[in-house]
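Quick illustration for those who missed Monday's session on complexes.
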Amino acid sequence: MSDQDPLAGAHLDTLAVRSGIHRTHEGEHAEPIFATSSYVFESAAEAAARFSGEQPGNVYSRYTNPTVRAFEQRLAALEGAEQAVATASGMAAILSTCMALLKAGDHVVCSRDVFGTSVNLFGKYMAKFGVDVTFVPLLDAAAWRAALRPETAMLFLETPSNPLCEVADLASMAQLAKEHQCLLVVDNCFCTPALQRPLALGADIVVHSATKYLDGQGRCVGGAVVGRAEQMNEVLTFLRTCGPTMSPFNAWVFLKGMETLRLRMEAHSAAALELAIWLQQQPEVERVYYAGLPDHPGHALAAQQQSAYGGVLSFLVKGGREQAWQFIDATRLMSLTANLGDAKTTIVHPATTTHGRLTPTQREQAGIRDGLIRIAVGLENVADLKADMQRGFAGIGRQ
Ligand SMILES: *Cc1c(COP(=O)(O)O)cnc(C)c1O
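Prediction with pyridoxal-5'-phosphate bound:
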């Protein structure tokens, strides 16, 4: 056998299945779960060397765990990154990034259109520790620029946005960050590296909620931070000290999830596109928001920086909250839950759930109207999803 690395230059599918594997002497084919909190040493001298860092190796699972390391290596390979750091959740990934790379007095410019809990993390907790945050509309380039201060250390965004699928130009945002010598952090949860690789477009750091598409079947909560070794080592040090690490069992579930990531993302995207086109033709629908539709303002950009348009779409039913609720309550197949990135299609009314804590004015500014319904398309047969939506439409106006 040649000693050439078979993964050098390998494609995403191959990396998703083959990277991060370290077989033990048992010769196991699938990745093992190292369900252990600590590790034993051969001698007192070895223990001392491991603790001092003189000898590499495992000490304790808050620091390192082989299953978690396999997950980190596989995700780093998919994102084309030097290093990934696994965390207990997506929120722990964002928190760890901030705690490791920001300090009191720093300023962050954050897209207004990010995951609601991310808004709270920045607005409530970072602010409490002296990190000032300015929220700006995702697509308002002038607002991003105007918000910059000498102490701005980080730009934070999510693209495509939830629930309206607005698409940010990652290359130009990376350019802005570079000009200002601050970090561009991108939450890549909706696309995953199967559809979009922000680091290749110039972003410094990618954060993930592995809970969503990396798992893909709604089983585990987890997250990750991905980027250059220089920053990832800081994130790792925070994690080792403060503890929001990923469990080995969850890491194993995500490892298995990643093996089918591209196939799933393509299936989610194809089904979402078919449903989006179909929804546009329904008389009860006022508007459909999906970047895969040629009339969506982000279509051209998404076609350029993503390899497909993802599984999340929204649509506006004619009327308002009452009609949207009637639609949702008349469906029988889709799961009524705010979660996404699952084989099971989910449906939610953003204005009264995920965006319910915003004031009516904030909701209006964000474009979250009362008739808006968000669907995260799963892996069921599209004909059955259409039939369920027909039930929804039939429920509108019925007493
Ligand atoms: C779910 C989600 C998060 C938070 O992830 P958890 O794993 O639930 O902590 C962050 N960003 C986006 C875009 C999400 O959808």
